[in-house]
């Protein structure tokens, strides 16, 4: 797939700056750090994508399969499914702004925690019941035809007689909802003074989302290895697995963004290399997201927007990785810091090019990202100017002839080591 450069979304981490006055004590230079005014508004700090949720219909009955199962058992599992679908439908209405019942539930940290717990509990109850029935009555695995829409891939107007396809749809939606909760908290609900605890809630949601997409990838593998059902219709399992891997990596990359932001807030002068190392890892994670995106062949506009945005994030975070590393190393070794700064200039030029093309109408940025690109561009420009001015007034160092490397990457956002609570029958 040839990803078009027509989208952009990025979290910008502010670099410090000072303003030189006509008379300015040189001894104070190392202590004069001021955050850029444009980053004081927490509402501008994150711009995250909305992940489409999948729609479903009432399952059909496979007339070629006979199952000895009581009507009460069928009714019970059907009721549990209805409860899950209602949660999905309510969140879909939240996404398209048709009602605000979900908004109310996410209005506090406690409310958000309860909403996520209720969602997960409902899903666990239904999927465990479904798997338990299949374990006791194997033919039930192909008794029903399940339909799920595919908003991120080419439309599949088909239903499949495999209960594992139902699990794929359900777990995908849980992962998507958790990612969208993070987007809502950091991009919609955030106000001045609320960002810190919202970041914690969003981080937890993204980490949990990665686990559900990992479930999807494992289920797709299981379906490929063990076919069931009587319908002679093949499920595009490779696409299902590739999409799950892509979204898992994206959720973790977004969680790593939060980690970089919080690390910088804790150490704005970058006295330690924590922010620089986390930032290097963030670039590598988005590099992996882009690699995963290239495995998926689809014409879905939603997917193209999200995946192209990931390309742009990769480029931006590459530039920012050099900025963070240069800021930290400059404090210890100005020559090495300037070496890193110069190495990042090419990446910074790419960022500037995005903004210029967008402003001239040559590049369309989805998710209303132009302002954010502008903030990032100005941020990089100001930090570069800051380091060069300090050097010209204090150190007068030259960039080291040997290129200084980026500090070792430091992973923070890692998928939890959990597995399905039941054995897949296939």
From TrEMBL:
It comes from the Eukaryota. Pfam families: BRO1 (PF03097). Gene3D superfamilies: alix/aip1 like domains. SMART domains: BRO1. Residues 49-426 form the BRO1 domain. PANTHER family: BRO1 DOMAIN-CONTAINING PROTEIN BROX. Belongs to the BROX family. This is BRO1 domain-containing protein. It comes from Leishmania braziliensis.
């Amino acid at each position: 797939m040839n990803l078009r450069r027509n989208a952009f979304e990025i979290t910008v981490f502010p670099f410090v700056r000072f303003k030189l006055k006509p008379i300015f004590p040189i001894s104070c230079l190392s202590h004069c750090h001021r955050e850029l005014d444009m980053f004081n508004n927490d509402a501008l700090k994150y711009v995250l994508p909305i992940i489409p949720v999948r729609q479903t219909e009432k399952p059909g009955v496979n007339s070629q399969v006979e199952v000895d199962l009581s009507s009460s058992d069928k009714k019970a599992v059907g009721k549990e499914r209805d409860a899950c679908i209602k949660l999905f439908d309510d969140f879909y209405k939240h996404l398209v702004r048709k009602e605000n019942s979900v908004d109310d539930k996410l209005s506090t940290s406690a409310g958000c925690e309860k909403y996520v717990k209720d969602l997960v509990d409902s899903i666990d109850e239904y999927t465990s019941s479904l798997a338990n029935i299949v374990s006791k009555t194997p033919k039930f695995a192909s008794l029903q035809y399940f339909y799920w829409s595919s908003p991120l891939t080419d439309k599949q107007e088909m239903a499949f007689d495999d209960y594992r396809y139902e699990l794929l749809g359900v777990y995908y939606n849980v992962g998507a909802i958790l990612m969208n909760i993070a987007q809502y908290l950091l991009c919609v609900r955030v106000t001045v003074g609320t960002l810190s605890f919202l970041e914690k809630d969003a981080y937890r949601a993204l980490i949990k989302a990665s686990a559900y997409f990992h479930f999807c990838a494992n289920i797709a593998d299981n379906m490929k290895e063990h076919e069931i059902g009587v319908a002679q219709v093949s499920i595009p399992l490779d696409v299902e697995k590739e999409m799950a891997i892509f979204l898992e990596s994206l959720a973790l990359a977004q969680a790593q963004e939060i980690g970089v932001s919080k690390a910088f807030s804790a150490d704005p002068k970058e006295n330690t290399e924590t922010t620089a190392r986390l930032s290097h890892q963030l670039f590598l994670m988005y590099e992996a997201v882009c690699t995963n995106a290239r495995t998926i062949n689809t014409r879905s506009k939603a997917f193209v927007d999200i995946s192209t945005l990931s390309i742009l994030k990769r480029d931006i975070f590459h530039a920012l990785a050099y900025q963070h590393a240069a800021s930290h190393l400059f404090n210890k070794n100005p020559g090495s810091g300037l070496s890193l700064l110069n190495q990042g200039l090419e990446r910074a030029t790419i960022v500037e090019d995005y903004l210029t093309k967008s402003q001239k109408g040559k590049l369309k940025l989805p998710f209303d990202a132009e302002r954010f690109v502008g903030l990032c561009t100005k941020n990089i420009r100001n930090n570069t100017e800051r380091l060069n001015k300090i050097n010209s007034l204090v150190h007068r160092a030259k960039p080291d002839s040997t290129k200084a490397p980026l500090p070792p990457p430091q992973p923070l956002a890692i998928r939890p080591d959990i597995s399905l609570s039941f054995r897949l029958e296939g």
